[in-house]
Amino acid sequence: MTFLPWRRRALTLALGAAALAAPALSWAQAAFPSKPLTLVVPFSAGGPTDVVSRLLGAAMGRHLGQSVVVENRVGAGGTLAAASVARAQPDGYTFLIHHNGMGTAPALYRKLPYKPLADFEYIGQVLDVPMTLVGRKDLPARDGKALLAYLKAQGDKTNIAHAGLGAVSHLCSMLLRQALGVDMTTVPYQGTAPAMNALMGGQVDLLCDQTTSTTPFIKAGSVKLYGVTTAQRLKTLPDTPTLAEQGLPGFQVVVWHGLYAPKGTPAAAVQRLTAALQAALKEPAVVARLHELGAVIPAEDKQTPAGLRDWLAEETHRYGPLIQAAGQFAD
């Protein structure tokens, strides 16, 4: 067959366009996911974020038709894990769970290797978790009001543990010190588990951490519960007053978690992950377990890319000035 020049040029352009479109078409036509996925957790195994991640990963896997492997990448307040996901192949098979640290990291770290508001695709918000203020069993104060008076009297003679720079327990300790006007000594640990062990061993006085971490120890009587950091009392701890009720009006700290994928992840993959997240958060067994841990499932409009993006922007602007004023930074 003989091609005229104009026909040859048209055929060349058509074949070129088809070649460019082929990867996108093949991705769209392929069943996603077709292999196991990796959920990266920035904190140690057994910690509160890890507990939630394993519950959520198993449930999402059921709706995705593939297993979700939880991988703990610990270090630098969660920034190592976040940076690794930001650099990961944007194919939908690697995603990140992170808490408030995504909003506080830009103010905490002078050389942050990623931009939380620019370097990720958003999947959705997972849950809100209240915080509890707990103390060693032999601390003299019998309740929250007595504790606040004790802390003001003791000043820097008292100390409060946290799970490392950038952890929500660190944020809570900063807010508590600011609200009391007391320069308590903060003691960092490499994760919630060692911080809790130090508290139960009497090596530190206080710890402010998530109900997902503290509830088992509260119920076992291993630590002394002084208050919750929510605006209202918790259904799971109905007899425990809020810190606001006991002399710290307006004091409120809630942990929230979100799911993120690398920037450039195909929209179809993000939509599939969002749908799996929303389905997982409707499973009766998941709901019951989260409620048992004191967690609150957010409204469905927050379980979306737009909902998480807007919330992260709000939290970033809320905590930035507080951290800057505290002068606590890391390289």
Q: Would you summarize the structure shown here?
A:
Pfam families: TctC. Helices cover 44% and strands 18% of the residues.
What does this structure look like?
The chain has 2 domains: 37-128 and 255-326, D-Maltodextrin-Binding Protein, domain 2; 130-228, D-Maltodextrin-Binding Protein, domain 2 (3-Layer(aba) Sandwich). Strands 1, 2, 3, 4, 5, 6, 7, 8 and 9 form a 9-stranded mixed beta sheet that branches. The protein has helices spanning 5-29, 48-64, 79-86, 101-108, 144-154, 168-180, 192-200, 211-219, 267-280, 284-292, 305-326; strands at 37-41, 68-72, 94-98, 120-135, 159-162, 185-188, 206-210, 224-228, 254-262. It is α/β, with parallel strands linked by helices and 331 residues long. Helices cover 44% and strands 18% of the residues. Helix 2 crosses helix 9. It is built from 11 helices and 9 strands. This is Tripartite tricarboxylate transporter substrate binding protein BugD. Residues 1-30 form the signal peptide. Pfam families: TctC. Keywords: Signal.
Based on the model shown, name its key terms:
331 residues, alpha/beta, D-Maltodextrin-Binding Protein, domain 2, 2 domains, 9-stranded mixed beta sheet, 9 strands, globular
List segments where confidence is low: pLDDT < 50 over at least 5 consecutive residues: 17-29
What is the CATH H-level superfamily of the largest domain?
Answer: Bordetella uptake gene, domain 1
CATH A-level architecture of the largest domain: 3-Layer(aba) Sandwich
Shape: globular
Q: What is the average of the pLDDT values?
A: 88
Tally of domains: 2
Q: Count the strands?
A: 9
Protein name: Tripartite tricarboxylate transporter substrate binding protein BugD
Keywords: Signal
Family: Belongs to the UPF0065 (bug) family.
Signal peptide: 1-30
